[in-house]
Amino acid sequence: MCGITGIYDMTGQGGVDPSVMKIMANTLIHRGPDDSGCYADRHMGFGFRRLSIIDLSTGSQPMFNEDKTIVSVCNGEIYNYKELRDRLISKGHRFYTNCDVEILVHLYEEYGTEFLNLLNGQFAFAICDKKTNLLMLGRDHVGIAPLFYASVNNHFVFASEIKAILKHPGVKREVNLTALDQIFSFPGMISPQTMFQGISALKPGHYLTVRNEQIEAKEYWDLSYPEISDIEWGKPESYYVEKLDELLTQAVRYRLQADVPVGFI
Questions:
Q1: Cβ(31)–Cβ(25) under 8 Å?
Q2: CATH code of the domain occupying 3-219
Q3: Is the dihedral of CA 137, 141, 145, 149 positive or negative?
Q4: Interhelix angle for 81-90 vs 103-111, to 10°?
Q5: Structural domain spans, the chain
Q6: What is the dihedral of CA 261, 119, 132, 23, to 10 degrees?
Q7: CA-CA distance, 133 to 12, in Å (whole number)?
Q8: What is the pTM of this model?
Q9: How far is the C-alpha of 110 from the C-alpha of 97, rounded, in Å?
Q10: How far apart are CA 61 and CA 73, in angstroms?
Q11: Residue 128 catalytic?
Q12: What is the pLDDT along the chain (265 residues), one digit of tens a residue?
């Protein structure tokens, strides 16, 4: 569990105050006590708090591509990063760490926003393409890693937790009555609603782009149900037992990748 936050100047004229970035990032210290990082230029700023799991010594964020025109921060883990890393190296990409999330800047460089379809993991990330002035946010398929955002005074603000967004001086603390109604009517709020007016949650299986004051969210994944004709009927019980064991073993093996002690119950 790490923490990310950021500010993007949608006009390219107002700039980003690095001191605000640091204040926002420091509200997430409980999510990442091991390390911190901050990057800001005249258009954007990213803040990061790290809980070290993979590549303890060189896995600090933000991460950059080779010419530092693409920058990213990520909370989470990319389980299939080794396979993707090998593919990217074969295409000529250079890596400077052994950290799983370094692949994000190179995947974006190689495939654009379509790279999300290649990921297996739990994650919430932000990528800024400084050549095209594009900001991209992405969230994992089922929303394990949280990510919230708001647009205020030509600034697009995002963070792993709402408390960091509230540290931005332009964000107001106003109750969202629609979300309050959902809490009383349903088991909980329905994304993108949050308890604060003007602050939204990025939906699971979605990504969002910001450029030239245009904000657009798109779905990249949804749970699909097989047609009856596609289901393998008539197999012996042992087949389904072995298949379930195979899938569970593969899923657990992916999640045991770490450079720190792990446990399994």
A1: no
A2: 3.60.20.10
A3: positive
A4: 50
A5: 3-219
A6: -30
A7: 9
A8: 0.90
A9: 18
A10: 6
A11: no
A12: 789 999 999 987 777 888 898 899 999 999 987 778 889 888 899 998 876 666 556 668 899 999 999 999 999 999 999 999 999 999 999 999 999 999 999 999 999 999 999 999 999 999 999 999 999 999 999 999 999 999 998 999 999 999 999 999 999 999 999 999 998 888 888 889 999 999 999 999 999 999 988 999 999 999 887 776 666 677 888 988 999 999 998 888 887 876 667 776 6
**Could you tell me which residues are beta bridge partners of residue 9?**
155
Report the chain's terminal Cα–Cα distance, integer Å. Answer: 19
**What phi and psi values does residue 185 have, to the nearest 5 degrees?**
-100, -25
Residue type, 42: R
Q: What's 18's DSSP letter?
A: H
The CB-based long-range contact list for 140-143 (8 Å cut-off, 24+ gap) reads 140/76, 140/204, 140/205, 141/204, 141/205, 141/221, 142/204, 142/205, 143/191, 143/203, 143/204, 143/205
The residue annotated as part of the active site, out of 2, 38, 74, 128, is 2
Give the residue from 13, 4, 40 showing the smallest Cα distance to 155. 13
Angstrom distance (rounded) from CA 176 to CA 249? 43
Q: How far apart are CA 241 and CA 156, in angstroms?
A: 49
- In 65-92, which positions are buried (b, 16+ CB within 10 angstroms) versus exposed (e)? beeeebbbbbbbbbbebeebbeebeeee
Length of the chain: 265
Amino acid type, 189: M
Q: Is the link from the previous residue into 192 a cis peptide, with omega within 30 of 0?
A: yes
The encoded tokens of residue 69 equal: 């025109």
